[in-house]
Amino acid sequence: MLDIGYKQSQGDHTLFVKHSASGGVTALLVYIDDIIVIGDDLEGMENLKKCLVKEFKIKKLGKQKYFLGIEVVHSWEGIFISQQKYVTDLLTETGKLGCRLAETPIEFNHRLGDTLEDTAVNKGSYQRRVGRLIYLSHTRPDIAYVVNVVSQFMHNPKESHFRGMYRILQYLKGTPGKGILFKKGKELILKAYTDADFAGSLIDRRSTSGYCTFLRGNLVTWRSEKQNVVARSSTEVEFRAMTLGICKLLWLKIVLEDLRVKWEGPMKLYCNNKSAINIEHNPV
To answer: Which of 25, 92, 102, 129 is most solvent-facing, going by the fewest CB within 10 Å?
Structure first.
């Protein structure tokens, strides 16, 4: 890719971009041997395909409909991605296709912890199922937090953890077609929302941060992650969550610059903790 004039993105090393003299752009995104070619430079896209054919044995699948288990639907309103078939296959594999439905993926104020007196379960089976749920969270932000919770017990799963994992499957049974719609937006606005709990883990009293970012009003990245230290105040917890949100905004700005998307105005960060906001405005 570098030999034929493409630039490797520093924000995402699997992304290669080339800009034509007329202002058009061609982008290639690769995951092992699966490739997406996209852009508004039709001539550049055709030239890229010819170069790939010379080097590799490739199969052209036309307009994108399916990629790595992710279903892609194009419409006049935008692009919708989901993993409905993936969910159905997961329910079939686990024998939960006819299970009872759950309205939420986890119980409110759950108490999942490292229960020593609880019965141990098959570690391999638990790890396989949670691993598939982790991949599913790429298009399902509604299960990002709970998947983060159940993945913390991979080393020594117990019966209560298995029940928590099965509740996610019960929730998915009632919502198999949920996904994300990327609408066509006019105004280029980049913003992030951050939040955190305080000492939410029963095991080590560490807190969990969460953030989500929006570009042109579309949800593009999200994450739920346990903090690596024990915080002593809710202000510290929220401040650490804000740093994650800022890092992700800066990363998105790098990717936009690689695509030469014209950026004007500040990036916006939203937090619901006044003390953390005051510290951010005046770190002294």
So the answer is: 92
Is residue 45 included in any domain, yes or no? Answer: yes
Q: Tokens in use for 242?
A: 């804000």
Side-chain half-sphere exposure of 104, counting CA atoms within 13 A:
7
Same domain, 126 and 53: no
From the list 230, 232, 239, the residue with the least C-alpha distance to 207 is 230
Give the C-alpha separation, 270 to 223, whole Å.
15
The overall average pLDDT reported for the chain is 90
Residue 257 belongs to a domain: yes
- The CB density around residue 36, as the number of other CB atoms within 10 Å, is 15
CA distance 196 to 211: 9
In a domain, 22, yes or no: yes
SS3 content of the chain, % helix, strand, coil (to 5): 35, 25, 40
Do 132 and 86 lie in a common domain?
A: yes
Comparing 89-93, 123-127, 264-268, which segment has the lowest mean pLDDT? Answer: 264-268
Give the model confidence (pLDDT) of 114-140 as tens digits.
666 778 888 999 999 999 999 999 999
Q: Tell me whether residue 69 is in a domain.
A: no
Give burial (CB, 10 Å; 0-12/13-18/19+) of 194: buried
- Shared domain for 128 and 211, answered yes or no, is no
Indicate the number of domains in the chain.
3
**Residue numbers of the domain that contains 51:** 7-62
pLDDT tens-digit readout, 246-261: 999 999 999 999 888 8
Give the dihedral of Cα atoms 133, 136, 139, 143; nearest 10 deg: -20
